[in-house]
Amino acid sequence: MAYLFELILFLTPFLAYGLWRRLNPNTEPSTILLVLAGCGIVLMVAGGYWYGLTRSMPRDAAYVPAHLEGERIEPGHAERRR
Question: What is the CA radius of gyration of the chain?
Fold first, then answer.
């Protein structure tokens, strides 16, 4: 059921655009709308790139998965390779 909801959320903008084009066949999107959409795409890509750079592990690190130490769960983390 969750996949159906995600699919509906994904398809809604495309359906709305198709409906708008069907109801207004002779009009085009305004220039400001296209510029704002382009700015949004650039900001999204830049934000994803920045997030990837700030959250990545160093090259000389190895990932240690979460494990039990006694009765305490040690969360996953990066350690320098030996």
Answer: 23
Place of tokens 């009765």: 71
Integer Cα distance of 15 and 32 in angstroms:
21
Helix (H, G, I), strand (E, B) or coil at 69: strand
pLDDT band at 59 (very low <50, low <70, confident <90, very high): confident
* DSSP state, residue 4: H
* Selection from 78, 58, 48, 57 nearest residue 66 by Cα: 78
Rounded to the nearest 10 degrees, how much is the dihedral formed by the CA atoms of 12, 17, 18, 21?
160
Tokens at residue 7, please? 């699919």
Distance CA(10)–CA(14), nearest Å, equals 8
What pTM was computed for the model? 0.57
